[in-house]
Amino acid sequence: MNTDGSNPQAVGIINNAYLTYASLNNLYTVQNSGGWWWQPDSGVQRQHSAVYKFAIGDGAPSYRAMGRIDGWLRNSFSLGEYETVLHTATTERNWITDIQRTSWVTQNHLINLRESSLGELQVIGESRGFGKDETIQSARFLGTRGFIVTFRQIDPLFSFDLTEPTAPKLLGSLEIPGFSSYMHPLDDTYLLTIGRSGAGNNFQLQIFDVSDMAKPKQAFVYSPSEDGYSYSAAEYDHKAFTYYAPSKLLTIPVSQGYYSGAAFSGILAFRVDVNAVEKIRLLGGVNHGDLAVEYFCGPAGVDNLNCRSYFYYVIPNRSVIMADGLNDYLYSISDIGIKANLVTDSQGLPQLNLLLFPSQAPNPITIIDPLPLGNVVF
């Protein structure tokens, strides 16, 4: 359809797809076998996924092909199209019964598909059975390279050569505590990831050096020093992960410190520089707890210690980075309001303005002087 909503053109099929992935020219939807179809020959439902392909170039969309693969896919990053090949990463967990045992067996597969002239997505190459008894936590396909993280008690990062789609090669692996749930390419050499620490109490940022695909290395790791518990929405929602490459600036929503009495719910900003000794450096944080006090307890500064408990009720959601050529500005967004801060290396994140959402306050504070708009990153 046109951006004004006119001239809609549609195509549809009947299925129960739950996951979508789009490349420049094609849209894929995925339906797994959980509760939707039955394995007729064995009496035991195996884990399969049906993949449907639609063309979404110029003109009306059109249905192209369908295929079926072993295992289930975690999210849209478990698929990646390069040229005519669709790469997929699946985890297959099946109930196995033999003479010696009856148990669940978990294995992971990288499966390549290509559309045939008969309207089928045919399997043309596979790398099967890696990460035994572990499940895929994240995947990223970058041209002729693929990276997959599995997890049970340790975090194996697997690297694949996809140059020959009919024979994908598992080149190397790295095992470290914890796991990565999202991978973001910094360049052809480094991956920036977010996930959980080995103990599982805190979120964790890592940089991996993948210049040697046969020997991926952990180049740096950042995890909060807080002894309690911390988490970030960016661990499970990549839209909460904001990276502005020109300034090497990463911002993520974080909640932490509730058990130590130093509660924080807001946005943390990091400088990410692979050439520095401290490759992930915390610049500072924008706490939205005072907005919660303003909303729940009245004007800021009110003497009511019980209001401090309302830090729990702030939900940091998103961050937006704007640049005017001279400075970077961070707009942090929670369910209660928005703050605008200047990003600096020496002075932290000086606050410039804030806004309480009208639905959250009878007399909201408004942004008086809007900051100049430059490159906007959502």
Structure, explained:
The protein is mostly beta strands and 378 residues long. It has a domain at 1-177. The protein contains one helix and 26 strands. It has one helix at 289-297, and strands at residues 19-22, 26-32, 48-55, 62-70, 79-82, 85-97, 102-115, 121-130, 135-142, 145-151, 154-161, 169-177, 179-185, 190-196, 203-209, 217-222, 230-231, 242-244, 249-256, 264-272, 280-287, 316-323, 328-334, 337-343, 351-356, 375-377. The longest helix has 9 residues, at 289-297. The two termini are 23 Å apart. The relative contact order is 0.07.
Strand content: over 45%
The first-to-last residue Cα distance is 23 Å
Q: Helix content range of the residues, please?
A: under 10%
Number of helices: 1
Structural class: mainly beta
Note the main sheet: 5 strands, antiparallel
Mass-distribution shape: globular
Runs in which pLDDT lies below 50 for 5 or more consecutive residues are 362-378
Give the SSE order as H and E letters: EEEEEEEEEEEEEEEEEEEEEHEEEEE
Number of strands: 26
From the structure provided, what is the oligomeric state, counting identical versus distinct chains?
A: single chain
Mean pLDDT: 86
- Using only C-alpha atoms, the radius of gyration works out to 24 Å
List the helices and strands and how they pair.
Layout: E1 19-22, E2 26-32, E3 48-55, E4 62-70, E5 79-82, E6 85-97, E7 102-115, E8 121-130, E9 135-142, E10 145-151, E11 154-161, E12 169-177, E13 179-185, E14 190-196, E15 203-209, E16 217-222, E17 230-231, E18 242-244, E19 249-256, E20 264-272, E21 280-287, H1 289-297, E22 316-323, E23 328-334, E24 337-343, E25 351-356, E26 375-377
Antiparallel strand pairs: 1-2, 2-3, 3-4, 5-6, 6-7, 7-8, 9-10, 10-11, 11-12, 13-14, 14-15, 15-16, 17-19, 18-19, 19-20, 20-21, 22-23, 22-26, 23-24, 24-25
